[in-house]
Structure formats: C-alpha cells, structure tokens
Amino acid sequence: MNLDAKVPEGSIEQKWTNAKFNYKLVNPANKRKYSVIVVGSGLAGAGAAATLGELGYNVKCFCYQDSPRRAHSISAQGGINAAKNYQNDGDSVHRLFYDTVKGGDFRSREANVYRLAEVSNAIIDQCVAQGVPFAREYGGMLANRSFGGAQVSRTFYARGQTGQQLLIGAYHSLSRQIGLGQVKMYNRHEMLDVVLVDGVAKGIITRNMVTGKVDRWAADAVVLATGGYSTVFFLSTNAAGCNVTAAWRAYRRGAGFANPCYTQIHPTCIPQEGEHQSKLTLMSESLRNDGRIWVPKSRETAAKIRSGEIKPSEVSEDERDYYLERKYPSFGNLAPRDISSRAAKEACDDGRGIAPTGFGVFLDFADAINRLGRDVIEERYGNLFDMYENIMGVNAYEQPMQIYPAPHYTMGGLWVDYDLQTSIPGLFAMGECNFSDHGANRLGASALMQGLADGYFVAPYVIGNYLGAEIPVGKAGKIDVNDPAFAEAENAVKEKIEKMLSIKGNSTPRSLHIELGKIMLEKCGMARDDAGLKEAIEQIKALREKFWSDLKLPGSADELNVELERAGRVADHLEFAELMCRDALDRSESCGGHFRTESQTEDGEALRDDEVFSNATVWEFKGLDQEPVKHVEKLEFDYVKPGVRSYK
Amino acid sequence: MSSLGKKYIMALSGLALVGFACGHMVGNLQMFLHPDWINEYAYKLQHLPYGLLWVVRIVMLTCVVAHMVTAVMLVIENYKARPEKYVAKANLQASFASRTMKYSGVILLAFIVFHIMHFTVQNIHPEFLHLETTLEGVGTIHHVYDKLLPLDRTTVHDVYSMVAHGFSLKFWYVSVFYIISMGLLCFHLMHGISSMFQSLGLRNDLWRKRLDRVALAAAVFVFIGFASLPLAGLLGIIEPITPLIASH
Amino acid sequence: MSERNISVTLKVWRQKNASVPGAFEIYKVDSVSTSSSFLEMMDLLNEQLIEEDKDPIAFDHDCREGICGTCSMVIDGIPHGKKALQTTCQLHMRSFNDGDNITIEPYRSKPFPVMRDLIVDREPMDAIMQAGGFVDQRIGAAQDANALPISKEIADKSMDAASCIGCGACVAVCPNASAMLLTSAKVGQLNLLPQGKPEKDRRALNMVRAMDGAGFGNCTNIGECEAACPKGVSLDFIAKMNRDYAVASAKEFFGVVG
C-alpha cells in the first residue's frame, strides 16, 4: 500500500502556499467536462459540493437524509476555533497549530494540522459573508469565548447552535449551486459501495431509500464526507442514522483505514437510564466552567444514593470526592475530555457511581449558585438545565446533574495523504471520515473547523489538481456505468441485500446493534486491555455469525424499508468493530482517547510510547476471513516536540 | 397572483371597508341628536355634487367584491393545500375570531345585502320611501349658518323616522339580527384589523401587542357604535317623528 | 426521576407508499418506561411488530436531540406533540399517563405527500431555499470577518430567525398548510444582515414565488405556526417578509429590481 503522505516542500508555514502553487489547474472552460461525486452533505460534504459546483465542475451530491441540511454536523453546540486573535490575547496560527498537535497527543501529521490552523481564519470570514449570525459584541464585532480548556479565547459561536448555523451556511451555498444546476442533489440515497475501474475510483453504487432501486453513478473523482463511526457503540451522541458504511466499503475496496481505535468519549453527557435508550444526549462542555464534578468517597454512600435512600444534597462536604479537582489541581473540572472521561469511569468502576445503573457522576452547581446566584446560572445555562429536566425529570438547580461520558467523535478514519486522497487514487476523504488532523484526541470546537477547512478550502485545490494531473480533458466525464466493475459492485450490493432478507431468523437488526454496542463499550471503550480486546474480537465474530444466520427483517428490498437500511449498517459495523479492536490491541500504548490499562504511569495517567508508536497505523483489507495487513506511516515532529501532556 | 398579493388585497380592501364602517357609524350616531341632524346629513349625502355618492358606492362595492372574491380564492386554495385532513384536531393559540373569519364574513355579506335592501333601496318596507319631513333647523350646522344656506325649510326624506320604525319593537327580530351581525363584525374586525397590519408588514415585535389591542379596541368601538341603534330602538329610546302610512 | 412503566394505546396512520391509500391501525404498547422518549416508545413498538411478523412503523428521525429537524409526526393533532418548544424526539413519555390514547398522524399537506406511514416528502422546502435562501457570494472571496460590524441587536434578531430547523411543523399545524413561517425565517435571517441586503428584493420575490409554486396554502395570520414551532420562530418574521415582498414588488413594477 502506498502511504506517501505527499507533504509539500518548505517550512511548515510555506507548505500550503507551495502546494497551492504547484497544484495543477483545470482550464475554466474545461471544468464543466469533469464530474465529481460527493457523498455526504455535512460541513465537509456540502462545503466541497458547493465549492466545486461554484468552480464549474459537474457535481453530484448524495445524502441519506431527506435534505442536505440535516447532516449530523448540525448537532455541534459549542463553537468553531480560529486563530483570529480578535481578543488580542496572544493567539496565532502557530499557537492553534501547537495546541491541536499537543491536544492530539502527538499522533497527527504536522503539515495537515498547520494547514488547518492556517485556513481557520478564512473559514470565519467565509461564514460571516454567507450570513452566519455569529454572536457579536455591542460594538458590532464578533464575540469569542474560551472553550475546551484552551488558554486563549478563540472560539466563535452562535448561541448553542454553532454547528447548525455553520451547516445551514454551507447548505445555503449548496442550495445556490443546486438552484443553478451546478450540483445535482440526491436525497435519501445511501451509498453502498465504491466502484474502482483499474484501481481508480470512478463511481459509487447507491440505494434509493424510497424506491429501493440500486443505481450506478460514475464520475472522475469521488469524495467521501460521510462522518465518523461512533454508532459502532450503538449508544453515542451521534445521530441514529450515522454509520461507517461508506468508509468501510472504501476500506474493503482497498483504501487504508487509519487508527480506527481513536475514539473520543465526551465527558458531559446524560447517563443511560435503561435498556430502552436509543441515544445519549450531550450536555455542552461549558457546564464544566461552573459545575463541580464529584462522587461520594464511600461505596456505601454511593449505594444509598443509587437506591434513592438519600439525596445527593444530603451528602456532607467531607463525604464527597471532587476527584478532578483532587487529581488535577491546576485544570480541575476543566481537564481535557479524555482525562475527565477516564476519571469518571475510574470512580464508577470503583463502585462509587451514582446513577441507578452505577454509571454516573455528579455535576454540581450548588456552589456556583451560592456564589453567583441562581439568576446568573440560569442566564448562562438555562436552556441546558431545561433540557436536562426534560430528559431526566430532575430540577438541576436543586439536585446535582448526573453525567457520564459517551462516545462522541472518532479521530480515526480513512487514511489520506496531504491532498486528502485515500490510498485509492481518485477517492478522497474529508471531514470526520478521514484520520488526518486530530491525532488521538480532538480538542473542543475543532471538528467544525476541520469539516469546513476540508470542504471549502482544501477540496477545490486538491480535486482540481487530481483532475488536472490524472485525467486528460479528452477522457473527462466519459466513464461508462456499463463497465464490468460497476456491474460487479451493483451485484455485490444486491446480493448482500437479498441475503439479509432471506435469513428470516429471530434477531432484529436493532437488538444485534445493541449487543455489539455493549461489547464495544465494555471492551473497547474508555479503557482497553489485551485480554478484553481479544475477547471482544471473538465475541464480535460470533455476533457477526449470529447476524448472518439469525437476522430477522420485515418487508422487501424494493420499498422504503427502514429496518433493511439499519441491517446494512449494522452488518458493516460488525465487520468494522473487529478492525477497531484489532487496532486497539495492536497499539499497546496509551494516547489521547485510546487508553490501554497496561500502559499507564504510577498515578494512572496515559503513558505514550513514542519509540514504537509515533506513527499512524493503517490497515489494509485482505478479505473477511483473513487478518488485515498493518502498515505504518511514521509521524515526524519538527515543530512541536512531543512532551507529556500534563494537566496537573 | 402571488399569495402575498392576495393578502395585500384583503388588507387594503379591508382597510377601506373599515374606514367606511367607521364613517358610517359616526354618521349613524347622529340618530341620538335632534332628527334634523341625521335627516340633513342624509339629504346632503344624497345630493353630493359631481356624482360623488356613486363614486363612493362604486369604490365600496369594488372593495366588497375584491375582499370577497379574494377570500373565496384563498379559502379554495387553502382547502386544496390540505387534501387529507387530520383526525385529531387541536388548537394552539389561534383566536376564535381568526378561525371563523370565513363564516363571519359570509354572514356579514348577507347582512350587508339585507341592510341595503332595508334602508337604502327600502324594498323590504316600501312604505319607508314615503316618510317625509321638513327640516326645522334645530341645532344643526345649517341652523347656525342658515343665512348662508338655502336649505331652510326644505322637505326631505325622513331618515330618522325610517330608522326608528325599522328598529321599532314591532320588528324586534330585525334589531336582534342587526345586533348579532354587529357582534360578528366585531369579531371579524378583531382579527381583521390586526391581520391587516401583519399582512402589510406594518408591525414588528414591539408593535404587535399594541396593534392587537388597537384592533380589539376599534372592533369593540365599532360594535358599540353600530349596535347602539337597534338596541335603542328595542328599548324605545328612539321614536319616529312621522307615522308610517301603509302603502297597501 | 420517579420512573415507572405505563401502557398506552396508539392510533397510527399506516400507508405502504404514496400511491396506495392508508388507514389507521391501533396498537397497544405495554411497559413503556416514563423515562424513555416518545421515539424510544416507537422503537419498542417496532421491535414488537417485527417479532409479530408485521411491518414496523416507518417514521423520520435522526439526531434525536432536537436540532436536525428530521422527526415529523403529528401527535394528537399537534406536530411534535403538546409540549411547546420541543421536537418529537425531545418529547418524553413522562408527559403521558397510564392508559392514554395517542393519535399519531403524518404531516398533512399537498406539497408533503406521504411516502410511507409517518414519513413525508419535504423536498419543497429545499426548493424554496434554492430559489433564494443564500447570499450570492463566492466561497473563498470574503473580506475579514470584522470588517463588517453588525450591531448585536441585528445579529441577535437574525439568529432568532436562523434558529429555524426546517422541520416543517409550521406547515403541518397551519390549517391552510402554509409555509410562510419557514420561508420568512430564511428571508428574515438574510434580509436583516448587511451581507444579505444587496439581494434583499430578489430574495423576497424568488422565495415567495417558489413557495407559492410548491402548492402551499395561504397565510391567514392566525399564529398556529408560531405556537407549534419547536424553536419559537416569531410571527413577526412573516410581517417582515410581507413588508419586504411589498417593497420588492413595487420596485419590480417600476423596473428597479433586475
């Protein structure tokens, strides 16, 4: 597998400039001859489709939702980072770059991260020009807040709906191109395979989710912007429809999958209440600015709280363990996501969890209310307290909130080079579905930044370069969907659907997904170990067998069949989950969101092994019954020297 | 025509009709003064120069027709926009008045037709045509300026008595119909006036509540003004000065 | 958190696809935890239906946290159910009592045909957006974000309009199936901002025309949309659009708008 990252020449500040100059261009008159397929309509997908359409390429954009505006980017609450330094507090492109590399626990590619920081400012300019109503100060200037423990205020926000506003901004631009006929939009179409002609990506296979029709689509280049795979845990903060299928199908066709074990577990979510639950709801991280996190010091007290014998407010101060403040005095309750999450798990594993399930810790505002008054807290977090009361039926002004970490974001993804091209020529991966920018842990307010950077500012250059360099104008747009490769892919898709429908067993797709989620959360969640991962791999294999022998599906293939869609996604998750565990098993160090219990310091902190693991692990598919082949891309750190991430 | 265009027509024709109704009402209230007031007022209206009376009548008729035709179009389009109805029905915040505009509108139309037949064409009581009186010149403007106006001692149609007869206890059901219709007009205007500001875009978050109150006040004001006459007739407060001569 | 189990009886609209007639079916769901969400109750029912070899009920949903705007059913006559400022996915079963009868219908309007059961086709909303719901601006050609000061009042008001999640509840609840609230929210968001000013007139004209073309009903200013809107988008944006459209039409009549 060719893992040449194609990092451009020059100093880190010059790389993107040099790359842009050296990229091939496509003559404006020829652009309309080239066609590009974009799968996904989130920040990266809608951004790329709109940008490429505007440049004049023929773009087809696909999404499984009923409208491109519903992609899951919409759920991001907190904000988007940029190195504008509008606050005059010492921010710079270099600092954003530095923070992101360090935050990623030194497992990301420096050149990509620098480019991300570099274009961050243009993103804000672009969004404002589009009409995104960012929060402003009375003077009319943009407001910023500090977020996710950053030491500068560089986060731009639009109430608690930043993701929504940015996505709608991209959707505006996309809608404009659709209206102009530059982009053809296909809603309720799910991509089920990538088509390679002579090893080069030339199209996709989709299923029309309304009619069930399986279609072939050809293009000169294919962009996947299909998001992350947190739903492998079943319960996550992701939308119900998020899935790994597109990325997984690309992997099965030969694209390298990098660092699948890197998942981010977000510390402030509402804990699971019971078996019926379908979703974990994120509570904005900003709550940690005023809330104090604790569990009882003794297991007995915790048990009494769980059984409802005593109320949390009745637990005396010296009975409480404010564990984050105790362990990380300098960052306290604001410790980074991976660290806070792990600490919560530790307390619960110790038998001191307080939710009925045993998995929950308190986020207590009593002190803040005493200090600032209820009005101030209400003004700052009123909507979140309302949301909490609605879901939990508890008034958080009177009793502390219960929170627990939940799978939220996945840093791993399809391996891409500097040009965001996967190891399959002509197949690009953008946004959360690639592995490139966040290393082993993503900082708050950086996901939106990456999605838009890839879509608006990287896609137009790298796609143009690929088309200009690899496809002569004479051959542009002349891919034949009758090529045997398309027929083979279409048949494979149809066969899989038929096979799933023909099993007629007893297990529903949802129940199988729940089972998979339990295995993954327990053995490949916040803490992983050798034995557990090996067990998980066996369990996943067994579950996959069960899926293919005992699946029960209602209905047929040629109708709107929600369960069939779900089954297809679960089938891919069942294959992907194994790779995720394999990667976690292989990476016997702890870094960022990946914590191997074997690799920790004396006081329980993550212990990296830079000697062995200063790299990205890239897996190559060799067939389901064979082990995937491991490749590595060595990561060089010339500008940010790896050190210990200490938040004490 | 665009949906908004239709709304503008509804609002503007409605505005003209509300203006007419207010003027009409103020004119009516002269019934509570000396009979000369209304009789002279009616006489002058009937004898406006340059055919102005017909100009006003045509403008009003146009407004009524425009208001009505547009309303019918809107109702049909709205009906078509929801071919299948909900089984469970709920009402969140729409006022009773706003939900019954089409019904109050239809009844008002019937009322207007009746009213014109009743007091303008007078074919419901043809004997009203023969009510005549001579202006005494009491308390009216023409009395003050009687030196200047040649109206002194003119014989005119006795509108005062016509109305008094029309609303007399004998025809109590007519008065009741008038009062009910004016109640519906009040409802119609409660939503209509506020809706007019909304349709023309002449309100914002600051003015919305205020204008809703203005609409309510105007509607109630119009109701009291109009309903007071049939009510006064029922209570015997207004009595005819000319007896009715049976025409047959 | 006094969690308990309740039983509810659902009367649900079932329809195989757009071209066949549908009908109501009655289902009883037992042991529904009051801590579960309405959609989780539907999940439970669907699992039950699959067990019984029946077709599960198709309904739209995605983020399940009230922001994507996908969920779309009408519960007891009210889109997103009886609680104000919430989407269906945020509705919890503790709002219901043991033994309740609940009627669930799809959005009903001509432009949103039923595709299956409770799923409707809301593509006309995209068509309205494509007609003018954007700033005609080239990606990558923006000036510095702070070069254009926008007063906090304007930015906040624009944000109020922008909070529309495009769920279509306003259309569903309107007795006339009018799409004025969602159209005006977008016209309002962009027409308020200086970035959107150059195309203010064209936007109002084109978006209203697209809206009319899709077959939505007419606004009768009764305000049901505002009450049903899960994000509380105000009726005042409709007034603003009425104003903008009137001005734009007048300008167009005199040939000022290109």
Description of the structure:
The complex is a heterotrimer of chains A (648), B (248) and C (258). Chain A folds into three domains: 265 residues, FAD/NAD(P)-binding domain (3-Layer(bba) Sandwich); 138 residues, Flavocytochrome C3, Chain A, domain 1; 132 residues, Methane Monooxygenase Hydroxylase, Chain G, domain 1 (Up-down Bundle). Chain A has 18 helices and 19 strands. In chain A, helix 4 packs across helix 5, helix 15 packs antiparallel against helix 16 and helix 15 runs parallel beside helix 17. Chain A is globular, with a radius of gyration of 24 Å. Chain A starts with 14 loop residues before the first helix and ends in a 14-residue tail after the last strand. The mean pLDDT of chain A is 95. Chain B is 66% helix and 2% strand. Chain B has nine helices and two strands. In chain B, 33% of the residues are buried. In chain C, 35% of the residues lie in helices and 14% in strands. Chain C is elongated. Chain C has eight helices and seven strands; from the N terminus they run ββαβββββααααααα. In chain C, a hairpin with a 2-residue loop joins strand 3 and strand 4. The chains are: A alpha+beta (648), B mainly alpha (248), C alpha+beta (258). Chains in contact: A-C, B-C. Chains B and C meet through helix 1, helix 3 and helix 8 of B and helix 6, helix 7 and helix 8 of C.
The gist of it:
The complex is a heterotrimer of chains A (648), B (248) and C (258). Chain A has 648 residues and is α+β, with helices and mostly antiparallel strands. Chain A is 38% helix and 14% strand.
Classify the oligomer: heterotrimer
The class by helix and strand makeup of chain B works out as mainly alpha
- Average pLDDT confidence of chain A is 95
- The CATH class designation of the largest domain in chain A is Alpha Beta
Please bin the fraction of helical residues of chain A.
25-40%
Sheet with the most strands of chain B? 2 strands, antiparallel
CATH names the topology of chain B as 3 helical TM bundles of succinate and fumarate reductases
Strand content of chain B: under 5%
Describe the main β-sheet of chain A briefly: 5 strands, parallel
| Element-by-element helix/strand order of chain B | HHHHHEHEHHH
Question: Which chains share the greatest interface?
Answer: A-C, 83 and 83 residues
Can you tell me the CATH topology of the largest domain in chain A? FAD/NAD(P)-binding domain
The share of residues in extended strands of chain A comes to: 5-15%
